[in-house]
Design brief:
single chain; 445 residues; alpha+beta; 5-stranded mixed sheet; two-stranded antiparallel sheet; 17 helices; globular
Amino acid sequence: MSDTEHARFSPSKMERILACPGSLALEEQCPDKVSKYAAEGSAAHQLAQWALSDGRFYAYAYQGRMIEVVERKGTLEEQTFWFEADEDMCDAVQVYVDAVKGNVERLVDRGLRVNLYVEQKVDTSGVLGVPGQFGTADAIILAEAPDGSALLEVHDLKYGKGVPVSAVQNRQLMTYGAAALDWFGAIADIATVELFIHMPRRDFMDSWPVEAQTLINFGDDLKAGAQQALIEIDRFKHGMSAEYLSLFPGNKHCFFCRAKGICPAYSKKALGTVIDQFDDLDAVEGQVAPKVKASTARIDRGLVPLHQLAEFMDAVDLVEDWCRAVRGRAEAELQAGYAVPGYKLVEGRKGNRDWTDRNAVEDLMKSMRLKKEEMYSFKLISPAKAEKLLKDNQRRWKRLLPLIARPDGQTTVAPASDKRPEIDAKPLIDQFEDMTVETEFADLV
């Protein structure tokens, strides 16, 4: 079974699969793009694994270490990233590590026998009713009492800075919880499972204790959802059309779906919302309406074709302006004290920690007999800073120029009237037309 089939029903997808069974059939037509942000999250998880596994529970012990992350390993899209475990990453991961360590210590203090499982591979085949499925739980704690009763904790680290995610009724965590209960329930009498979400870069942590029977019942929902998704996949495979797929767009479960660009139901909902609501915003009235209405009228029951995609692109800038106007008005109304149903003002992410008196800190650290290499971190200045430093000495600056590299810009979509030259993109298969078995793979024979 391929990695794609293994990941078909990964716990992270279950929220969407249960809400929109046809989405998986469409998503499997879309490439799984490599994301630097996702890779950075993987690096943070690696750091957390080291800190939780070495017995020290101290992420800063690895500060400065380079972490390799290989995305889409073994595929044509394989890409390697390197991240430094810098102070910011260590700060965030340490918050998570401290929380898990604190829970372990509290359970031990209660006289329970505690086992901590880090980056634990969890077989989800049983709760999904689909063979060969699994996920990796960031941390699982099994705490057993002398009388044979036990409790289970499932911890999920989210390194991103996005909107805080509640643990309550969280389908991803419930899938992990149900699978862990299915496994550990064979060796312990587990009555309660507590699910935790940690978002240290948002100063957010949430938990939800759930009865074991609730997760057992949830397993029935998972099986039904997975079976329906398989039916949808088979249905789409035979017709290659979204006409008969069960597609139910929604803000929450569509957010990370790769099929948004080809899904007719999502396009119709998004553009229909603009049509229904733009009248409140005079700044874009008369501009959004004709383009959006024309695009909506042409959405058929199959996949969104290229000619419709071009029409959507015509309206993108205006729709984005509309979105910014909506957000701005909502914030202004709330700032003025008016209620916007379902929304509120909250404090944003706090800034990075800093010393209030650096001289006092230096004196105190010196009194602790810390070495200079422990107190200070030295980092080579960037090309931009070097250019500024040497702006009065062009001869010296020019000696540095051969040592500067600048990555190419990411490809982006622009109107045909844009003055930048067009990139001659080739289909992926054409990029390998010169490869031969004799020259490229002779050493494998």
